[in-house]
Design brief:
single chain; Rossmann fold; six-stranded parallel sheet; 14 strands; 47% helix
Amino acid sequence: MSKIVFVGAGSTVFAKNLLVDILSMPELNSSEIMLFDIDEQRLSTSMVVAGRIREKLGSASVITGTTNQAEALVGADYVITMFQIGGYEPSTVIDFEIPKKYGLRQTIGDTLGIGGIMRGIRTIPVMVNLVKDMEDLCPDALLLNYVNPMAMICWAIAEVSDIKTIGLCHSVQHTATQISEDIGVPLNQMQYLVAGINHMSFFLQLEELNGAVPIDLYPRVRERGRSQIPYRELPGGVQLSDAVRYEVLERIGYFVTESSEHFAEYVPWFIKKGREDLIKQFEIPLDEYPRRCEQQIQHWEKLRSDLEDSTKDLHVQTSNEYGAGIIHSIETGTSRIFNANVPNQGLITNLPSDCCVEVPCTVDDSGIKPMTIGEIPPQLAALIQTNVNVQSLTVQAVLKGNREHVYHAAMVDPHTSAELSLEQIWELVDEMLSAHGNMIPTELR
């Protein structure tokens, strides 16, 4: 019986989805599940929900919980991370409100930009501490990381530890589904090859399997973007335009995996002071992540009550996250293909060998094998490199305790550098590091 540890299990909704995925598979139905979180109240809710899932699925699993990391990790076979350091308050509020004073506006702030840099600085030390504990307590375990900023974290882990690690995101499979809906081609009739870095991977091939010869779907995707820009439906009836991604497709020739609201802040072209016409034209939702956080906080108490109420039906449905399938493949030998974040090491030859790339991987009982892509189109490599520069400097700032590299990371960040002077960037970094206080490593304060 495998032991699967959820780190950050107080992320109840995400933990619920993964737990349903795992326990819905007969071969994993009797797994040992350990839920770990430092927040006792949220852990308690997740424990109640886990028990209800176990009962509903008729699972023979053993589910326990703890607020002690070492206790959680002992003898683990799989460790799944799903936490956020600093939460909405104070950290996300700091990440958005202080930059606004300098005229620097953001949408999501969890991957790149000044918000992504600060999140990386807060999170990498916690992840390093986790993998060091894994080296002592479960050295053969596989770490499946869902925490952002994904590329920075996976890069940092590879620098400090030999623990087996992959970074998992749902942007590839979600975007494939969205394209399928946009152009009216069933997902099961599509095949694709996607590679790049997390949140900036591209569909290098996109084809329809409807006969002996695959049909290139890019002409249909381009036509859709030229005729009517799709909208994405979010919880609460909010609709967001996908105009940014379709504009980038027109200019660069390939469709990117991350949503328009994310991608808009990874580049210097869409969010610009004095260009409200661009914000309007591309319908860019400034402060989108804080809006989502506030919505979730507002509805959390009712949601928690419903999840804990045994008289109310608990909706159980599998997700399209990769995690459970990977564990199943390793345990049973069933072969699967999925996209994951791994050290480059020549997988994409025109990106740095030490960066973290997102490429297709195969998995079975012999382990995980990333696919060698070779060169990607030069315009894609050039665009990705602008983000890799920021990731590299942030990782080195934390691992080497070099405060100067925090300024350097912000200085070369595409969005920040397009908006602020060097003096403003230095002042902004000083103020944000000070505001984060003891959530920042001592060497960087």
